[in-house]
Amino acid sequence: MLEVKGNVAVVTGGASGIGRALAKRWVAEGGKVVIGDFNDSVFPEIEQELGADNVVCVKVNVTQEADTEKLAKTAVEKFGKINLVAPCAGIIADGMCVSPTRDGGVRKMSLDQWNRVIGINLTGVFLTVRDCMEQMILTKSKGAVITISSTGSLGTAGQINYSSTKAAMSVFPKVLTAEMMRRGLGAQIRINAVAPGYTATAMTAGMNQEALAAIEATIPIGRMNQAEEIVSMMFELYRNEAVAGETFFVHGGLRLGSKG
Among candidates 211, 200, 187, 207, which has minimal Cα distance to 252? Predict the structure, then answer.
């Protein structure tokens, strides 16, 4: 079993939501964390909360490889290694791919709406994982990569952009685990994904609350996940060295509209 104490996590999207909850628990268990986020206005608050000796915050645009390279190298320069990579940065920009309008026309999802989500949720994860794994190999760091999928990976109407990225996150562990095995690194760097259902974060708080209440009514446990419950699964995926190449759903029994 891998230890957290004395080890180093790199977390993108760490200024809020699941990423921040992960960073908080990682430090509470004796680890060091490097947070990458575009929202640098909350960095002083995070540093005060977690302790300046335990955290480094880096302003990052995850779609820019110069930024993700800097993030990975900063972790090594500051703490000497990387043991957990958690690319939690993500956005939604919901809309139907095509939708008839009342005047007889058709409304389409814009290319920008597609590209913004693909850029952050897919390209941004690729760059973060690629550059952090490079440093893990160079420093001979042992640890895990945990991507963030979603129940949306199974297909959600109005989220063809988001669902596509989350389906990709489900296949990352299988591809990267095979690649690590071929290079004799399978025991050093394990890759898994956690796939949350609806989780109480700033992102869901910004959704239509009437629609959200209707969704909650379909969840067997009767509520959304808490970020800490997702983090709990991520810690198990990090610690348990027998777990590799898989995606684990944490959704309270949600089956995308199925009532069982």
Answer: 200
Distances (CA, A) of 180 to 26, 66, 121, 236, 245: 25, 24, 23, 20, 10
Contact 125, 145 (CB under 8 A): no
- Give the whole-angstrom CA distance, residue 51 versus residue 249: 32
Distances (CA, A) of 201 to 143, 186, 197: 27, 33, 12
> pLDDT for 162-177, tens place per residue?
999 999 999 999 999 9
As annotated, the active-site residues are: 162
User: Long-range contacts made by residues 75-81, C-beta under 8 angstroms, separation at least 24?
Assistant: 75/8, 75/10, 75/34, 75/132, 75/135, 76/135, 76/138, 76/139, 78/32, 78/34, 79/8, 79/32, 79/34, 80/8, 80/139, 81/7, 81/8, 81/136, 81/139, 81/141
Q: pTM value?
A: 0.93
- Which range (21-25, 75-79, 152-156, 247-251) has the least confidence? 152-156
DSSP 156: -
Contact 54, 115 (CB under 8 A): no
- Cα–Cα distances in Å, from 242 out to 57, 80, 172, 236? 31, 25, 18, 11
CA distance 49 to 93: 31
On whether the CB atoms of residues 96 and 152 are closer than 8 A, the answer is no
